[in-house]
Structure formats: C-alpha cells, structure tokens
Write a structure and sequence with these properties.
Bound molecules: adenosine-5'-triphosphate, magnesium ion
Number of strands: 17
Largest sheet: 9 strands, mixed
Number of helices: 10
Strand content: 25-35%
Structural class: alpha/beta
Helix content: 25-40%
Strand order of the largest sheet: 9-6-1-12-13-14-15-16-17
CATH superfamily: Ribokinase
CATH architecture: 3-Layer(aba) Sandwich
CATH topology: UDP-N-acetylmuramoyl-L-alanine:D-glutamate ligase
Shape: globular
CATH class: Alpha Beta
Distance between the termini: 25 Å
Number of domains: 1
Length: about 375
C-alpha cells in the first residue's frame, strides 16, 4: 500500500486553557443558580478578584483537537503521513527580522506573539502528526488580533458547570482569497482533507461572491477528484458542502446537528451522493453508506451501532472530536476490506468511550485502552 497523505486544516488556531474557580463568598464567584443556568461572579467594585487555578494549557481549535487525538492513536507502523496545517498572521515590528527555525521536521515560523505561542503548544502536543504553519501576509492590520485566540474553559469547582469563552476568528475577504490560493497548491497531491469546526467570519464586500457560509464548499471545489474529504461542520457550512460540485466523503454530526439539517436531506439528490453519513449521540451511531436519510422517516434505512457501555461519564468535552479522530485513524490506516467501514465506526466509538470515561477527557485517550474496548465489541459482532 502506498503512503497516504492526509491534511487537517486549522483555520481557528487556539491556545486552550482550563481554569478552576473555587467558591468564595468574597473573592470568588458568588452563586450558581442551577435552574436558571446562571453563574454570578463578584465584580472588582466589590473588591473581589477571582483567582482561578490553571488546570491545563494546550493547543486547541476543533481541527487541532482531531489531530491531537489521532496523534495519540497512530503508531510508527501506520503507512500514513498526517499534517495539521494552521494559518497564522505574519510577525510585526522587530520580529520581522526573525527567520524560520527548523526543529526536527517542523518549520517554526515568525508570527505574532500569539501565533508563536500556538506553534509552540502544537509542537509539544504532536509526535506522529506533523504540524505545518502557513503565514498569511493578508492577516495583517486591524483584524490580526483576531487571527489567533485563547479559549478559556472556566470550571466552577464542585458544581458540575463551566463557562466557556471562545473569541471568534475574524478574517477579511482578502485573507480568504490568499488562503484559498495557498490551499490550491497544498492539496494537489493529498489523499484526504479534514474540515472541522466553524470557519472564520468576515464581512463580505460588494461584488464578492464568497461568504463564510460557502468557504468550505469553495475548498471542496479546489480538491483533486480522487481526494477524499471528511467534514464535521454544522449549519450553513455543511449545507453548502452538500450542494457543492464535489461532495464530502464522510460527514460527522451529532443527533441535534443531524435534525437541524433535515431540510438539506430533503433537497439532496440521492443519485449524486456516494459518501457516508455518521450521526452520533450518547446512545450510539447511525450510519448511511452511499445513501441519504429518508425524509419521511429520518432514521429508517440507517445501520445502528450502539455505544459501548461506560461505567462513569467524567467529561463529554471533545467526545465528538475524539470520535471523528478515531474513525479517521482506523480508516486511513486499514486496507480496503469489506469490513473497513464497520471497523472504523466501532473503533471511533471505542475512542469516544475512553474519552468520556476518564478524568482527562480527550487528553486521557490511550491506544491500549481503545483497543481493549474495540476488540471486545468487534470480536463479538464479527
Ligand atoms: N453520556 C455519554 N455516555 C456514553 N457515551 C457518550 C456520552 N456522551 C458522549 N458519548 C460518546 O461520545 C460520542 C460523541 O459524543 P457527542 O454525541 O456528545 O458529540 P458532540 O456533541 O459532537 O461533541 P463535540 O462536538 O462537542 O465534541 C457519542 O457518540 C458516544 O459514543
Ligand atoms: Mg461535534
């Protein structure tokens, strides 16, 4: 089997942090109202200064999460080369004098301080997946500050709730064109492209045909005919992909996203669709292979795979990303046998079961624990 090449595209580079905020009547947050879902935090006018404990710092973004999980599952034997491609702003001021630095196989690129921080976190997190950093000169100017971000997940200790702050990534139409041009070159010899999460947003200018809604569909149209595409994107972004010239090969979505897309299934022409749809929730996965949902009875016609039993659920954060990653790992590293799809689905469920049932969520995923669950289910059914 020849070496397969996969690229995962990260348009929303992130440094993720998890903070733990304890309850303190004077200093910390004051109250959590379970019924209303409201957390109150004392303001500084009340002399309060929340002092959260920093629990974790890592490279984030939906696509990066998928790459990070694949990285943990791949072994040296896998005959596949996977790159995580991240789009970053150029350096400013004196930093323009910096030169790229090669570290093992990775080229660290001069960027903004926050762009360099994201690179450092990715390099530390990824061993088998190779990060690749693309500097987009058009990411300068007033929107440069929104080209990378820090996302904060603030856990309110002991309450089972959290607050999440995730700034939007903002581009200009010029950035979009520059990225598409760069992508055209990048994708010419790849076997699979992975799209996950919402794209950046921008204000389209007059006479511009491209909008954030059709950005992913535009990417599909750039790809060579033999290139597979796996998407975990929702709403309009997905809808546009379903009606682009080239259609996705794999579509991942949770049950709510699936129901939200019911208008798309109605309009989609069954004869044109050769992909696979994988819908999941805590109960299991519904799979349509080279087929689309029946609009009168949505789930009829799908193959159902029940979720592996999980004793205690610690955290479902990133469970969907873990599932996407697990599927891709198994699919790209296995031969084209008859059971390839069912193997990959069951493997993906085993990965998310490990993810939800350990305290470190996606960070606690390990290939041995995944294989144990996988072998149990697979050997029972096949
Ligand atoms: N409470 C749970 N019990 C058992 N398994 C679960 C539970 N929640 C999630 N899972 C497993 O994780 C998989 C993916 O979870 P979910 O459907 O919540 O993803 P999601 O909503 O796409 O999440 P995200 O995109 O935020 O990562 C499920 O199909 C299931 O296998
Ligand atoms: Mg999801």
């Amino acid at each position: 089997m020849s070496m397969k090449k996969v690229i995962i595209l990260e348009f929303a580079p992130t440094a993720d942090e998890i903070w733990n905020l304890d309850h303190n009547d004077i200093d910390g947050y004051a109250n959590y109202d379970v019924e209303k879902g409201l957390v109150s935090i004392l303001d500084t006018a009340h002399d309060a200064k929340p002092r959260p404990e920093i629990l974790a710092v890592y490279a984030g973004g939906k696509a990066t999460n998928v790459a990070r999980v694949i990285d943990r599952l791949l072994d040296e034997k896998s005959n596949v080369k996977i790159e995580l491609v991240t789009f970053l702003p150029p350096p400013q001021g004196i930093f323009c004098k910096l030169q790229p630095v090669k570290l093992n196989d990775v080229e660290i690129m001069p960027s903004t301080p926050s762009g360099m921080y994201v690179q450092a976190l990715q390099i530390l997190d990824l061993v088998n997946v190779r990060p690749r950093f693309e500097i987009i000169d058009e990411l300068q100017g007033p929107t440069a500050i929104q080209a990378t971000r820090r996302c904060i997940e603030m856990i309110i200790k002991g309450t089972g709730t959290s607050l999440n702050f995730s700034p939007r990534i903002i581009w200009t139409p010029k950035t979009v064109h520059a990225v598409l041009q760069k992508l055209e070159k990048l994708v010419s010899n790849v076997d699979m492209v992975v799209l996950a999460g919402a794209p950046p947003i921008w204000k389209p200018v007059d006479n511009e045909s491209i909008t954030p809604h059709d950005f992913y569909a535009e990417i599909l149209n750039l790809l060579p005919p033999q290139c597979d595409v796996s998407v975990d994107v929702r709403g309009y972004y997905l809808h546009k992909c379903l009606f682009s010239k080239k259609l996705p090969t794999f579509i991942f979505m949770n049950k709510n996203e699936f129901l939200e897309a019911s208008e798309s299934w109605k309009k989609l022409n069954k004869g044109n669709f050769f992909g696979t749809i994988i819908v999941h929730n805590k109960d299991g996965c519904w799979v349509w292979d080279k087929d689309i949902p029946n609009t009168d009875d949505l789930f009829n016609g799908s193959i159902f795979y029940p979720s592996p039993k999980v004793e205690k659920v610690y955290s479902t954060i990133g469970a969907g990303d873990a599932m996407h990653a697990g599927f891709l790992k198994e699919w790209v590293s296995s031969e084209n046998t008859e059971d390839r799809l069912s193997r990959s689905v069951i493997y993906s469920q085993s990965v998310s079961a490990v993810s939800v049932s350990n305290e470190r969520a996606t960070h606690g995923i390990d290939a041995v624990a995944v294989d144990q669950i996988f072998n149990k289910i697979y050997n029972k059914n096949y």
